[in-house]
Amino acid sequence: MASSQYDQFFREATTRDPEADFALGRNRLYGLSTSWCFLDQAVPRPEDAFWAAMKKKRIHPGRNGLCMTGPAAADYILASYPGLV
Q1: Cβ atoms within 10 A of the Cβ of 85, count?
Q2: Each residue of 38-60: pLDDT tens digit?
Q3: Proportion of the chain above pLDDT 70, given as a percent
Q4: b/e string for 19-41 if b means 16 or more Cβ within 10 A?
Q5: Distance of alpha carbon 69 from alpha carbon 14, whole angstroms
Q6: Is 84 helix (H, G, I), strand (E, B) or coil?
Q7: Cβ proximity of 75 and 33 under 8 Å
């Protein structure tokens, strides 16, 4: 995922809600990004590269106010909990 793709990922797959009871943690945020890549037909970066890019963007797991939204969120949830289908 190139730098501009990270911005697109945030626009399409996340929403900010500072009052939410929870925020996307490490596993969920990276998992959401891989779901977004799958749907966008982009190649996901390795997890360490993803987190290096998040550090540059000052996005920290669990303290980010980010929530899932859109088709990538649905894909991630269904892939994580196959019994829901």
Answers
A1: 6
A2: 999 999 999 999 999 999 999 98
A3: 94
A4: eeeebbeeebbbbbbbbbbebbe
A5: 5
A6: helix
A7: no
To the nearest 10°, the Cα dihedral for 46, 75, 77, 35? 10
- Quick one: pLDDT at residue 64? 83
Q: 69 lies in which domain range?
A: 3-84
In eight-state DSSP terms, residue 46 is P
CA–CA distance, 58 with 43 (Å, rounded to integer): 22
pLDDT value for 23? 80
Look at residue 19 in the predicted model and tell me its pLDDT.
Answer: 72
Number of domains, the chain:
1
pTM above 0.85, yes or no: yes
Contact predicate 44/52, CB 8 Å: no
